[in-house]
Specification:
Layout (H helix, E strand, L loop, with lengths): L6 E7 L6 H9 L6 E7 L7 H4 L5 E4 L6 H11 L4 E4 L12
Parallel strand pairs: 1-2, 1-4, 2-3
Length: about 100
């Protein structure tokens, strides 16, 4: 029996609560296991917290808006997986991507 290495899906978000659930669900619905999902909220207002709390994700909120690349870096630094998949909040990944 082989155990798979943890894969981390990092989702930076900025005021897209209408799109974020579909991104999280696409990461959650992977055929690969185990997967951790890291959501980094760059709004500076914890705008995505209400969405993130509905799912089993690691939620990180920036205290102020830093921009896309710093937000991705925050997620990468927080990720604990051996592999990292970046996923924008308005995008989806196919179930067999990982």
């Amino acid at each position: 029996m082989t155990s798979n290495s943890l894969a981390s899906v990092v989702i930076p978000t900025y005021y897209r609560n209408d799109q974020l659930p579909k991104a999280i669900e696409s990461a959650r619905d992977q055929t690969y296991d185990p997967v951790e999902i890291v959501v980094v909220d760059d709004s500076g207002e914890r705008h995505a917290e209400s969405v993130a709390t509905e799912y089993d994700v690691h939620y990180i909120a920036h205290e102020r808006n830093l921009g896309g690349n710093p937000t991705r870096n925050t997620g990468i630094e927080a990720a604990t997986g051996d592999y990292i998949q970046l996923l924008d909040d308005d995008d989806r990944i196919l179930p067999t991507k990982l």
